[in-house]
Each structure stands twice: as structure tokens, then as C-alpha cells.
Design a protein that fits this description.
Blueprint: H1 12-27, H2 31-39, E1 44-50, H3 64-71, E2 74-76, E3 79-80, H4 87-96, H5 100-103, E4 110-112, E5 117-119, H6 124-127, H7 138-144, E6 149-152, E7 168-169, H8 178-189, E8 199-204, H9 206-214, H10 219-241, E9 248-253, E10 259-260, E11 266-268, E12 278-282, E13 286-291, H11 293-308, E14 313-317, E15 336-340, E16 345-347, H12 349-354, E17 362-363, E18 377-380, E19 388-390, E20 393-394, H13 398-405
Helix pairs in contact: 8-10, 9-10
Bound molecules: adenosine monophosphate and zinc ion (2 copies).
């Protein structure tokens, strides 16, 4: 197991009470009964993601408020992303608690041969199409059990997954000001009507953007981290003044980390293969492609030979992808995957010559095993043990924590709730 627990608050009594509650809930079918069971410990959950928040960005120097806040609650050494360590597969895996091969959202760019369709993150029609998303997002788990949810952006929340949507949701719009996002979710959580939400999500992309543009250590990235810090302060103050602080567990996560890249670490793919022979799906640092059977062996062997002679990448046929990626069993898994070594970029001779400043700054997508790809995890609120710590754990477990904190019966998932035993109060 990757996720061993360092803190050790025994939770056995708590687990027993929780199991009993679940048993009682499953015996009483009316939703009303479920709600009554919940009300005895009614808690709210606010899940917030700052895209590209690398685990080690959290420090007294770069995020002083958050650092002090995390001392009062739970913090992990890192949240291990799913492969590829890109935005869409990771946000969705957090929401459904399933590995990519079990939830269908296997990359930022995907080809589905049954739909005969490409999925790209900028393609609104596809992003809002339910066919791409499998499993049960936490907002559906909530709504099905009579708990209202609101998403101020989250991957998957704009599509009618399982034919439903959260009570409150917003189509992604990166131009909505930071404070307006926070004000909106505070309002959802404190409406005082039967539309009031108990689960809300928040999402911000600016830290990822600065990490891409300037790299992990630049003053601009420091400034973005201070902006994160200020927003967390604002959020906690707003929760306090809305009277929500004592009943809300705030979970701060991210989707992946960030790695500096440079022009002296590039792999020009056309030096190794004929790009005309493949259907290129995903780009850098993980190139995914489908290949006509007639060309497959040739393309693969040329790349494999190059790898064995020291080229800074690894190449895998679909069935060879490491099992720990949990990304090879879905019909959408591409025929071939090339993963650049950490810090390298996959490009073409043409792209290099037409972009004299490419590549620079930072990128992500690499093997999740690299600590540079690890994201942040902090839990603050009435159910988290003060000053509790966890080693790095995989992000697919978060769904089970959310369900637990909301008193919900989780849908089948790949997570293990015992991951969190050491950081929860009894
Ligand atoms: P990447 O760094 O390529 O993995 O993706 C990061 C980008 O995803 C961010 O800059 C956001 O603008 C974008 N993004 C995040 N959530 C959504 C969404 N729900 N719909 C469309 N784009 C999104
Ligand atoms: Zn991201
Ligand atoms: Zn990014």
C-alpha cells in the first residue's frame, strides 16, 4: 500500500457507529429517513481545488496563512494524482473515487471509437456530454440521498452524468472573479431554504497558469501562491461570518503538481517516427496515439529501440502500461503512450523552430510517482483532528472521505476510507 498512516487516532468506535448508521440508512428506504439520520450530525463540506498546487508549495514562506491553518487541521505529505497527471482526469477521479480506467475520463484529450469522437478540454459540446463520464460523482451521491450540492466549477459537473445535475451548478467561466466564486458558494451553503446546499465545490486555475508560464520558483508563482493564501483567509472569514465555520469541513486539494521544463530538454518525435502514420490524441509530456494495425509494430519497435538506447522517454503499448496507472483497461485507452522523463517535453522539429521560446516555464502530466507531480491535501473543520498528518495517498480515496463527512452511503468506488483514520476525530 502506498498510503500508510503516520498519525494514529483509533477510530474503531467511530467506524462502528458509522457502519451502524449506514445499515440503518439502507434499511429505511424513504429519502426522508436518510435525511433524518443525517441531521443528527449534519455537516457541510466545501471541496476546493487550486489547480496545479504542488504539495511542497504549502510552506510558511510561500503560503503563511494556509500553513498556519493547516497546523490546526489535517495535512498530507501529498495527494498522488492519477495518470496522466493532468487536470481533467484528476478532478474527475477525485469526484467519483474511481481510477481513470473505471471512470472513462482517461486523459485531457481522449478518442472514443464507439462515439467516433474526440474529447478535448476546450470543446464545450463534448465537455458537457454525459457519455464521457462514468461512475457516480459525489454531487450525485449527495442529491440521490436528499443532500443538495452546488458546484462553482468542477470537471464533470457541467454534464448530466447519470441523467442528473447538482441543484446549483455553473458552466465553467474562468473570468468569474475569485471573491464572487467564494461568495456564491457561501450563499448556497447558507440559503436557509430547502435549496440550501450541504456540499459545495470551488475551483481556481490561476496558480496552474502561472506555473505553466513562469515555472515553479518564479516571483509570479510566489504571487499566485499569496493570492491563494489571501483567498483561503477570505473564505474562512466568510464561513465564520455566515455562521458556517463550526459545521463545515473544508477540504483543500489540487489535481497535480508542476515541473520546470526547458528548451534544452526536448524530444522531437518526428526524429523517431513518421507522424503521418498515427492519430495523435494527447500532447506533452505524455503523447497518446492510435495507430492503424499495419503500422503499429513498426512505430512501436522504432520508439522502443530509441528508449533502450537512452532516449529520455518510455513507450508503452496499451497492454504494457504499468498496472499502477490503472489506465489500460478502458476501451478508450490509446494504442500507444509515450511518457517523457521528468522535465522533458515532447515536441516536433516544426513546433520548435516556429516557437523560439518553447518550451519554458512548467508542465505536468508525468508519471504520478514523481513527487513533483504530487498535489496538496489539507482538511480543516469540526471532523479533522488538530495537527494531524498523513503520508502521501492516492487522490481516488477522497470520494470516500467526502461521502463519510456528509453521512452518505458511498457508491461503489476504488477508494479506501481507512486511509483517513489517522486524521479524523472520533
Ligand atoms: P491543463 O493544465 O492543460 O491540464 O488544464 C488546465 C486548464 O483547464 C485550466 O487553465 C482551466 O482553464 C481548464 N479548466 C478547468 N476546469 C474546466 C472546465 N470545467 N471546463 C473547461 N476548462 C476547464
Ligand atoms: Zn490542472
Ligand atoms: Zn496545467
Amino acid at each position: 500500500m502506498m498510503n500508510s498512516i503516520t498519525a494514529s487516532t483509533p477510530l474503531n468506535t467511530h467506524k462502528f457507529v458509522f457502519s451502524l448508521a449506514l445499515l440503518l440508512m439502507s434499511c429505511s428506504s424513504p429519502v426522508q429517513q436518510d435525511i433524518q439520520d443525517r441531521d443528527s450530525k449534519a455537516k457541510k463540506v466545501l471541496l476546493i481545488s487550486f489547480d496545479g498546487f504542488r504539495a511542497d508549495y504549502l510552506s510558511a514562506e510561500r503560503t503563511p496563512y494556509l500553513h498556519a491553518l493547516a497546523q490546526k487541521g489535517a495535512k498530507s505529505e501529498g495527494l498522488i494524482p492519477v495518470f496522466p497527471s493532468k487536470t481533467f482526469p484528476n478532478h474527475y477521479a477525485i469526484a467519483v473515487g474511481l481510477h481513470p480506467e473505471n471512470n472513462g475520463l482517461i486523459g485531457n484529450s481522449i478518442y472514443d471509437s464507439t462515439l467516433a469522437q474526440m474529447y478535448r478540454i476546450g470543446d464545450r459540446e463534448q465537455v458537457e456530454r454525459a457519455d464521457w463520464y462514468e461512475g457516480e460523482p459525489i454531487w450525485n451521491t449527495a442529491e440521490k440521498q436528499g443532500v443538495r450540492a452546488g458546484t462553482m466549477f468542477w470537471v464533470g459537473s457541467e454534464a448530466p452524468v447519470q441523467g442528473m445535475r447538482p441543484t446549483h451548478w455553473k458552466r465553467y467561466d474562468g473570468s468569474v472573479p475569485d471573491s464572487a466564486r467564494i461568495d456564491t458558494v457561501i450563499q448556497w451553503l447558507s440559503m436557509g431554504t430547502d435549496l440550501e446546499g450541504d456540499l459545495a465545490t470551488l475551483y481556481f486555475s490561476f496558480l496552474d497558469s502561472q506555473g505553466h508560464r513562469y515555472g515553479t520558483d518564479a516571483p509570479e508563482t510566489d504571487a499566485a501562491l499569496l493570492r491563494v493564501d489571501g483567498l483561503m483567509k477570505y473564505l474562512m472569514e466568510e464561513l465564520e461570518s455566515a455562521g458556517l465555520a463550526n459545521q463545515t469541513n473544508v477540504i483543500l486539494v489540487s489535481d497535480h503538481g508542476m515541473q520546470n521544463i526547458s528548451r534544452d530538454r526536448v524530444i522531437t518525435l518526428d526524429s523517431y517516427m513518421d507522424l503521418e502514420k498515427v492519430l495523435m490524441i494527447g500532447g506533452s509530456p505524455v503523447a497518446t496515439m492510435n495507430i492503424e494495425p499495419v503500422y503499429r509494430a513498426e512505430v512501436y519497435h522504432t520508439l522502443k529501440n530509441a528508449q533502450e538506447e537512452g532516449a529520455p522517454f518510455q513507450v508503452f503499448l496499451k497492454e504494457e502500461l504499468p498496472k499502477r496507472f490503472h489506465n489500460s483497461k478502458h476501451p478508450r485507452t490509446p494504442d500507444l503512450t509515450i511518457i517523457a522523463d521528468l522535465g522533458y517535453s515532447l515536441t516536433t522539429t516544426q513546433q520548435l523552430s516556429s516557437n523560439p521560446n518553447y518550451p519554458s516555464g512548467g508542465n505536468h502530466g508525468y508519471d504520478p510517482q514523481h513527487t513533483e507531480m504530487h498535489a496538496v491535501f489539507v482538511g480543516i473543520g469540526p471532523d479533522f483532528a488538530p495537527n494531524s498528518r498523513l503520508e502521501a495517498f492516492e487522490s481516488i480515496h477522497v470520494y470516500s472521505l467526502l461521502a463519510y463527512l456528509l453521512g452518505l452511503n458511498p457508491a461503489p468506488n476504488d477508494g479506501d476510507f481507512t486511509t483517513f483514520e489517522g486524521i479524523l476525530l472520533q
